[in-house]
Amino acid sequence: MRALLTALALTVLATPACAALAPQYYEEARDKAPNVVVFDVLGVATPRGEAGNCMVTGKVIRAERGTKYKPGDTLLIAVPCRSPRAPVRVGGTVWQDMEALVRSAHGKAYLDDHGELALDQYQLYDLH
């Protein structure tokens, strides 16, 4: 256990732009998310500062997992986002590029039963 904590600490210190959790935790969050949806991005409201939650509004194209969302449903998802000018924050948050998020046409979200992202698992999605 001590070796694992030491390796985790070294990873965080060596790569401050990366999330602090090991990749398998994010993979597990994607695998276990009860709802996975692909959607058209209808709009993105950015935070006032350089980092925070972008509020992404979307219209469901398809539900890849779960029965909570149906094609045509409207979503509102809080997605952690930051501008390239924002200071790098060390931690478990997976930050999306704010400008890319605003430009995106589609998204894929791994959601819990409350409609919140499972460990910030959100992907810019290309349908083509």
Write up this protein.
This protein is an alpha+beta fold. It has a single domain (2-124), classed as OB fold (Dihydrolipoamide Acetyltransferase, E2P) (Beta Barrel), CATH 2.40.50. Helix content is 23%, strand content 40%. It has 3 helices and 6 strands, in the order ααββββαββ. It has a 6-stranded mixed β-sheet with strand order 4-3-2-1-5-6. Strand 2 and strand 3 form a beta hairpin. The longest helix is centred in the first third of the chain and has 13 residues, at 2-14. The protein is globular and about 40 Å long. Residues 1-18 have low confidence and may be disordered.
Summarize this, please?
This protein has helices at 2-14, 23-32, 98-103, and strands at 35-45, 51-65, 74-82, 96-97, 106-111, 117-124.
